[in-house]
Design a protein that fits this description.
Blueprint: H1 2-52, H2 65-68, H3 99-112, H4 120-139, H5 142-153, H6 164-194, H7 196-209, H8 214-241
């Protein structure tokens, strides 16, 4: 019963991820380049404002056209241009791995190595754990290694022996493990639904039930703002050239 419930939750989570990914792709195609264009125009308007500004004037102007053309973003005023002009980040320097991380990794490797598996399912689980252990070791993440080690000691696979008591302990641990997995899935589902993209998808679906297309409305609004910003920029440039 519990294993069936876990399987259903896993399928539900996978479906939600796929639906949100498909919606995000649709959103990018419809609005991504428009946000980028609007941001570009706002920056150019800022540049013309700064070039004409009085040095003694206040830094910001409530009537600045760049402030009048915000992107129709998501909660919190996000304006997603989808990384088209994101500055390049310098590669992070990897800190040296501590002796404690090395000790924990060696201990984990001895316990969870895939070669110790008794069947294909256990081998897959051990392989996934080994990948996680390697990632934590590469990052020098002692806390993550400690969590992996604690999770292993609490797992059914860590129980030795073949008697009735050992099998009972394994069963109890499987139940606890399944319940914890279900709780994590429910938490992730809640996070996905509460995300900006989840919020927007719900708004779009609600609008569709009411008989109108919210994304199409956002496209029209962005196109209007882009046209106004372009006209304002064209008006300013001749004024500056004749000034």
């Amino acid at each position: 019963m519990l294993s069936r419930q876990l399987l259903e939750r896993e399928r539900g989570l996978a479906a939600t991820r796929n639906e949100l990914a498909a919606f995000e792709t649709r959103y990018r195609r419809a609005l991504g380049t428009r946000y980028a264009r609007l941001d570009e125009l706002a920056e150019r308007l800022d540049e013309t404002e700064e070039a004409d500004a009085d040095p003694l004037a206040p830094e910001s102007d409530p009537d600045d056209p760049a402030d009048r053309y915000p992107g129709q973003g998501l909660p919190g005023g996000q304006n997603w241009a989808w990384g088209e002009r994101e500055p390049e980040k310098e590669p992070e320097r990897r800190a040296p791995v501590s002796d404690e991380a090395k000790r924990l990794f060696r201990q984990l490797a001895r316990l969870i190595h895939p070669d110790l598996a008794g069947d294909a399912a256990e081998r897959e689980r051990r392989t996934n754990l080994m990948v996680a252990a390697n990632d934590a070791y590469e990052q020098g993440d002692v806390a993550a290694l400690e969590r992996l080690l604690a999770d292993w000691h609490a797992s059914p696979e860590a129980v030795t022996g073949s008697g009735a008591l050992a099998e009972l302990e394994r069963t109890l641990r499987r139940i606890i493990q399944a319940e914890a997995s279900i709780a994590r899935i429910e938490e992730e589902l809640a996070e996905l639904e509460a995300s900006a993209m989840g919020w927007l998808r719900r708004r779009v679906e609600k609008a569709a039930r009411e008989g109108w297309d919210l994304l199409a409305h956002m496209v029209r609004e962005l196109d209007r703002q882009i046209s106004e910003a372009q006209l304002e920029l064209e008006r300013r440039i001749p004024l500056r050239s004749h000034g």
